[in-house]
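Technical annex, item 7. During the second reporting period the consortium partners agreed on a shared format for inverse folding records so that results from different sites could be compared directly. Each record opens with the tokenized structure and is followed by the designed sequence. A conforming record, contributed by the partner at site C, is shown below for reference.
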């Protein structure tokens, strides 16, 4: 009794610490709710945490319970949880002693029914369709014979083997496989990354850029194919610059990627058949077209031969073909005289420019040669003219003798022709004489130029030309030696002399030496 009265507790209840009480509640809850199924709507879902775990809540119209999916369980889920989705979660209820809260640890998660998933798909379909991702105008035609095909699928399933086998049977081409997961958490992101990765290949890079993409997966339930309803996959397929074939599931299975792709195949094998043609059929078609081409070429050649024969018969005569060239020739010959005169004038100007740079000795030599040639040509020209005149006179005489027997009207016409011919002959002779006079005038002018440049005119002004024993001109006193015989040429003749000692030149007057020297006149240069 004494111990009872000595106790401070007002009752006989056991005393627990906070940790002991929280642990007892945790064990009690886990034993009572170790396996439960809860139906509710996902709330507050933000995707997996950086650790890989996912934290969110399940709620209905009256209550709310926290939920967690550990990283290992998250990777095994058949579909990705989304905000607002109604699901059935299976797991155990536990508490979190640190905050006196309870939560359900989810081990499996499934939609509340196909109707809920279909409603979600329809809502997403309406949203993406409103953005124009499913428009037919965005779809590109498939290449008829792609050189490289990119396949996005699981590398371990039967789908890739069926595709490769079907392509090798129909038309073997280079196939690049991008391995991805086709089911479970993160599979949608892998498929989208694979589509974007193939589009990022550069043309001519180390890995060939595919001409066609195939996204394939075998059949399965709605949950198994859920990754291909992912919004990231649909957007990647719609934005692909490479034509894309979706081959997801069987013929009755439809996913949102089927609407965004350029072509949908009922099966992966069907996608391979769409991707490449049958090589044997192409060879047969090419052979048939080749035979048709040879036949068409033969018929075309026959038709062309007949056309050529018909055109040959329709060709004009030789006179008609030569009429236009003859006229052009006559026009050119009419302008030949003017062209020769202009050419002569141009040559004369060129000659005058060149003559200004010639030395007197070269000029005199050339003038002598030209004078000789000109004289020869004048003699030949006179002889030719005489012969031509003689021939013309003989022809006219013979023609006159032959035509005297013709009627009077013809004789009058012949007389007129003779008068005209005589006039033309006279004009030709006058033209030749005028040309000879012009040439004589030119030679006379050149002779005057030569005479004006001759050193003899210099001798007439009081100068003399000194030559040595060899007859070469002496240009300075230093070139002569004592008692050397020289020849001095004056304007009126030459004399011989012998050199003696010379004297210094006379000095200028002193008064003139004091004046500043005048500028030396420019040198004229030697005339010899």
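Designed sequence (site C submission):
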């Amino acid at each position: 009794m004494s111990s009872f009265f000595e106790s401070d507790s007002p009752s006989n209840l056991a005393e627990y610490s906070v940790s002991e009480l929280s642990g007892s509640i945790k064990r009690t809850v886990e034993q009572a709710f170790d396996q439960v199924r809860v139906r509710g709507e996902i709330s507050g879902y933000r995707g997996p945490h950086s650790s890989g775990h996912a934290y969110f809540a399940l709620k209905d119209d009256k209550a709310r319970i926290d939920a967690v999916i550990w990283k290992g369980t998250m990777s095994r889920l058949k579909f990705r949880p989304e905000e607002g989705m109604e699901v059935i979660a299976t797991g155990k209820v536990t508490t979190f002693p640190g905050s006196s809260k309870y939560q359900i640890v989810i081990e499996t998660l499934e939609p509340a029914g196909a109707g809920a998933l279909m409603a979600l798909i329809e809502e997403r379909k309406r949203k993406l369709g409103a953005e124009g991702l499913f428009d037919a105008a965005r779809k590109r035609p498939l290449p008829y014979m792609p050189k490289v095909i990119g396949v996005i699928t699981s590398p371990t399933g039967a789908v890739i083997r069926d595709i490769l086998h079907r392509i090798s049977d129909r038309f073997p081409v280079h196939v690049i496989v991008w391995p991805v997961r086709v089911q479970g958490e993160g599979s949608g992101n892998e498929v989208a990354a694979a589509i974007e990765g193939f589009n990022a290949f550069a043309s001519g890079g180390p890995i060939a850029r595919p001409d066609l993409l195939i996204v394939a997966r075998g059949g399965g339930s709605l949950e198994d194919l859920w990754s291909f309803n992912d919004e990231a996959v649909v957007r990647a397929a719609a934005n692909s610059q490479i034509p894309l074939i979706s081959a997801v599931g069987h013929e009755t299975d439809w996913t949102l990627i089927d609407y965004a792709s350029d072509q949908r195949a009922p099966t992966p094998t069907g996608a391979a058949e769409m991707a490449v043609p049958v090589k044997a059929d192409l060879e047969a078609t090419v052979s048939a077209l080749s035979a048709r081409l040879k036949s068409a070429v033969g018929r075309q050649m026959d038709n062309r031969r007949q056309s050529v024969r018909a055109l040959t018969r329709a060709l004009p005569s030789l006179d008609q073909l030569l009429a236009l060239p003859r006229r052009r020739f006559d026009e050119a010959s009419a302008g030949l005289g003017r062209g020769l005169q202009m050419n002569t004038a141009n040559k004369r100007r060129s000659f005058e420019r060149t003559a200004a740079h010639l030395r007197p000795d070269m000029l005199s030599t050339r003038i002598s040669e030209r004078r000789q040639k000109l004289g020869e040509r004048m003699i030949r020209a006179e002889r030719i003219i005489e012969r031509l005149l003689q021939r013309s006179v003989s022809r006219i005489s013979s023609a006159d003798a032959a035509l005297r027997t013709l009627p009077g009207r013809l004789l009058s016409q012949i007389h007129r022709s003779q008068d005209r011919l005589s006039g033309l002959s006279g004009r030709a002779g006058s033209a030749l004489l005028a040309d000879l006079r012009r040439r004589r005038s030119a030679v006379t002018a050149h002779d005057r130029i030569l005479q004006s440049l001759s050193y003899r005119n210099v001798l007439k002004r009081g100068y003399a030309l000194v030559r040595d024993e060899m007859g070469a001109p002496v240009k300075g006193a230093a070139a002569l030696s004592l008692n050397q015989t020289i020849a001095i040429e004056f304007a009126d003749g030459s004399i011989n002399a012998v050199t003696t000692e010379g004297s210094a030149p006379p000095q200028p007057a002193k008064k003139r030496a004091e004046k500043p020297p005048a500028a030396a006149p420019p040198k004229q240069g030697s005339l010899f």
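Confidence is low (pLDDT under 50) at residues 1-7, 509-516, 518-528. Residues 47 and 175 are 35 Å apart (CA to CA). All partners now use this format for quarterly exchanges.
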